[in-house]
Structures
1.
Amino acid sequence: MRFWLIAFIIVLVLVGGSTVAYQRGWLERPGPKFLTVAVSRGRVETMVNSTGTVKPVRSVSVGAFTSGPMLEVLVDFNSVVKKNELLARIDPRLFQAAVRRDEAFLKVQKADLARIEALLQQAKNNEGRARKLVAINPDYLSDQEMDQFRFSRMALEAQKDLAVASIAQAKATLTNSETNLIFTEIRSPVSGLIIERKVDPGQTVVSSFQTAELFVVAPDMEKHMHIFASVDEADIGMIRSATEKGMAVKFTVDAYPNDLFEGKIYQIRNSSTTTQNVVTYPVVIETPNPGLKLRPGMTANISFQIEAKDDVLRLPAIALRFQPQPAQVRPEDRHYVEAVITPTETGTRRSAKDKANAARSRFNRVVWAQEERFLRAVPVKLGLMESQYAEILESELTEGQLIVTGMEARK
């Protein structure tokens, strides 16, 4: 009997000791380890990124007004041309023949006018003599004879007017033929660089309902270029603000990845484009091109600078995305977490006013600082926000203070 009593007491002591040791070990178990980053001072810059295509400021299409075989082409791709410089020549033989034909026709019309003028002068003289005879004696000529003299003179006057009009018509026809002959010489309307040539010697150019395009000349490419970017409608308001402030635009091209180019917003166009329910607007950027590095068709990776501030108190943007569990937060701050994780009513739509208020409230946020075993909420009012940092306008945070950005994974 005594043996069993002693054994029971021993077991009871062992079980009690194990329980106490377990509970003490549980209470002394370390809590979660949080990742922290210090609040710092530095530059905060708001950017909008996009892509665009490099194009000349102006592309002048040079075409052919007349048709015919191409006799010679005097320029090639990348040729630098001056205004009114001869680029190509269409075979002029048919047009030269047309000019000679119209010159001969004009001479015929002038000769016919001289003939009619002579007949008209003769008719006037005959009519004058008849009037003198009638003045001497009315019986010398009858009324019918006088009508013949008068109407003969009037008919020749009408023929003279017709001959004058025919001469004017012949002159116009000659001018048309001479102009067509001039158009066989294809000249550059502007000074610039040939960026496209679409014709070769011997090729027949047909200009009928649509003018045949032979060359494309880009003026002032060495001075400046345009970049056409498509910007999402959600960012157009910020782009407009940057335009009003005269903010710079920086971009790179794949051909020169180590070079950073800079330009300015030249124009925000209203011709929107909708692709898969996404509305974008074209934004034109003007940039200098002194070394001719930028070529038409290049793809530019663009960063629109919206606003920038130097030496401001800032916190890492990742701290704004961290959301702790309620058990990790001290009791008096748990309402910040519970307000976020409480399910919202589904199937309802917010009004425009609610959406605007929600957009404004995104500047009032909460970050977390570690306080012994729990996290403490620190309200902050933010200014500029970018992908890496956010400006602190109002808060109890100070430079160098640690804030929580996440939890370390348990091993």
Note: Residues 34-44+312-342+351-407 form a domain with the conserved putative lor/sdh protein from methanococcus maripaludis s2 fold fold (CATH 2.40.420.20).
2.
Amino acid sequence: MQAVLEQKEEDTRLCQIKGKSFEGMFPLVKDPTKTAKVLMVHGVGSHIPGYSTQLLEGLSDEMSLNRISKITKNIALTDVLDPTKKLGNLRITRSTNEDGSHELLFYELTWSEITDEQKKILAYDNSGEYSFRRAAVNDILKKFTNDTAPDPMIYLGTSHEDILISFAQSFCWMVSKEWADLPASSTSRQVCNPAQLLSAVENMQKNHYAFISHSLGSRIVIDGLQRIARLLGDRQNKRRKMVAEEFVKTFQQLQFPIFMLSNQLPLLQLGRKLPEVTGQHDSYCKADGEHYNSRIVSETSIIAFSDPNDLLSYALPHGFIEQYIDSRLCAHSTNININVATVIDAFGIGFANPLKAHLAYETDKRVIAMLVNGVGNENTSPIIHGRCRILITTDD
């Protein structure tokens, strides 16, 4: 019986990569001349600071970052124009290798504080008065739905701007301050003033940047960057007037990889207006383009992970980037269709846990390997070559 229980079956879970090759985070981390800074943005559901610890530990193990800062810094976020607002928490952790030549600053944004208050309207449905009437599995699913389903609706409603300001404040702290300059943990609200970005020019030149997002977080990152594009492009905006031209020119040289776990961009594009500038990639992103000097960044790499058995995630269809992403971000995409949930045969019917398919990215070794070492380059991990089908697109 023990032999039967301990036997291991070959892992035949789907893993197909299609799109442009990409570098992972390790080339950014191991560059001894720069610091790698990664901003994590969660998706639907209530979160508390520290939610990304398992993911961070997986990344650190893969990159041999075995030294961690004694303290973790937390910044209570607010709005520069309205300091009374509570816009969530930014948690910063510093990890290095033994000799300190490889450095990662990991910024974890917890924005769900903004939506938690509004979701209390459904709290009664989770009480014993109603929950005991449900079957056990259905009760688990209903509580999960009550916690997650309202967030996209709230995000598209009155809290939309506050969540984007929370992202912008996190981004401001990331680009404007180094580890030693970040404030110590405090419960008092602190603001990163856009005027501080003038001093960030030198910092931006000596740092690498990347984003990791999950589900709704992917929409927040893209909307946040497109909001920055609008602000930097609108010279009359009062927030824009706080930013120096030197900062804008330096910002144009940056490259942003965005690793989107459980990507939802197509779903959350429904019913939304198009960005201000679309369908003009070459005009803004090629050196000989008519509007090259009006681009926002040099390149945005969108790496979209989705599990086909996740009811709430989607691959990016052909033409999506050109039609629905601001051309000034100079974006391109790679789709990664991967089963993070195991498909089992239940009475002759294939089944995969949809909750695990939505949430289990941080425990999948293939996902960690791609986040760290990328795909289609000399550093691609053996586990990816051995267990994934790789289709690299060309410009031909």
Note: The first strand starts at residue 15 and ends at 19.
3.
Amino acid sequence: MLISENMKKCNWLIACLFVLSVNAQEKLVIVGKAPDMHVVHMANGSESLQNISNLFGQSVSKLSKYNRININASVTLPKGTAVKIPLTKDNLLQQPGEGSGPVYHIIKKGDNLYRLSQIYNKVPITSMKEWNNMKKDIVKNGQYVIVGYMVNASIGTAVATKKQDPKTETPAPAVTVPEKKTPVKREPVTAKPVTIDPPAVVDGGLVVKETKPAEEKKAVVTVPAKKEISSSDYTPKEGDEGFFAGNYTEHPKEQSQQFHSGDAATFKSISGWTDRKYYVLMNDVAPKTIVRITGTTNKSICAMVLGPLQETKGASGLLLRVSNSAASALGITDAKFTVTVTYFE
């Protein structure tokens, strides 16, 4: 009798674990960091790579290459086979569509809704709060937060891959409607040179000078010049992101957003205390690039890259150095601290 009761309890526990496992698999959770991110789809035992290709609107060749597999696309995959689906700005929707599914980010230390917005193609914070029934901007470690919706079988490539049966389906005749073209009057745009006073920067006796821009090459296509912020256009205001904030938001459309996170330190500068012109030293980023820096206090400032990090004591392992006025604006007093950096290139 006791054995029978124990068996019933054991079976009940297994059933609960199975339900939890299924529910966990139903969530499309983002894995990896930008720009190499993906979600995992678990094969149900009746799907082939072609079926999964149709479901997510990804070509078989792309899935094969991304998962490093070389199999017949029509072969049924064993149940539980994990197939990685690459996640890009092209298949991560900022609005739910018919047949689309939510994609989740698991909150970890240092995450907030502003940071998620920057990582996932500037998805509006108001949208994330609506999707997740959030009344406040507060998130907790381990929380599942919907950051978008993923393209799947109802739209895109999945529809194009379906084959018609000539016996049962008759293709509709193609109708071509001539497009009415309206002449567009283009106004010539003259690019204005940017003049920025180089700050006096001293760090342990090291003087950092602003790097002169490289000589411009002749472009085949003329792109309208980006409007630069002049001193007369900007009034310093406590709590804003600084003089270069306007330049950060007005980037060319063909540029893509880059994301980094790591340790930072400061260097001494006389600039930024009154005019809120902040500067940063950072490797592998072109001089004069405008970056947005977010500290652990959730405050952000925009700064201009002067050049690479110098080989000085304590520079090993640093992502960047910011001017001491920038650190003050972020509300940071520590000698070493963690920051998140985004920029366009």
Note: The chain has two domains: 25-160, 201-212+227-344.
